[in-house]
Design a protein that fits this description.
alpha+beta; ubl conjugation; four-stranded antiparallel sheet; Nucleotide-bd_a/b_plait_sf; globular; two-stranded antiparallel sheet; phosphoprotein; 11% helix; isopeptide bond
């Protein structure tokens, strides 16, 4: 006894599959990130600013959030008057530009109970050429 409501002949009448990653309702991670590559640093460090972080976030939870990317360091500043309390923002440093680019595509994704902001960190480096050590 068949429990299906249609036969294989129904496949002839189906529309071609839709690439759901282009739909406005697609998850952000499925869409191509809308990032201006000119804003990316040309030389290391490749650092992302992380905003709106939960106050109970840890370095490990940040590394887990960016799992699969080459993350080299996490910095979570603390309140000077209360060293136990985080300031709600931080920085993640990546080993390569591609990891930074992929991290930026996670902007507005949820970490804990918050939608965090991921952006290129302001860097005090000139926008010229890289030193010879960093081609």
């Amino acid at each position: 006894v068949s429990t299906t409501w249609h036969s294989n002949d129904d496949d002839v009448y189906r529309a071609p599959p839709i690439d759901r990653s282009i739909l406005p309702t697609a998850p952000r991670a499925a869409r191509e990130p809308n990032i201006d590559r000119r804003r990316l640093p040309k030389c290391p460090p490749y650092t992302a600013f992380l905003g709106n972080l939960p106050y109970d976030v840890t370095e490990e939870s940040i590394k887990d959030f960016f799992r699969g990317l080459n993350i080299s360091a996490v910095r979570l500043p603390r309140e000077p008057t209360n060293p136990e309390r985080l300031k709600g923002f931080g920085y993640a440093e990546f080993e390569d530009i591609d990891s930074l680019f992929q991290a930026l595509s996670l902007n507005e994704e949820s970490l804990g109970n918050r939608r965090i902001r991921v952006d290129v960190a302001d860097q005090a480096q000139d926008k010229g050429e890289c030193p010879a050590a960093f081609p």
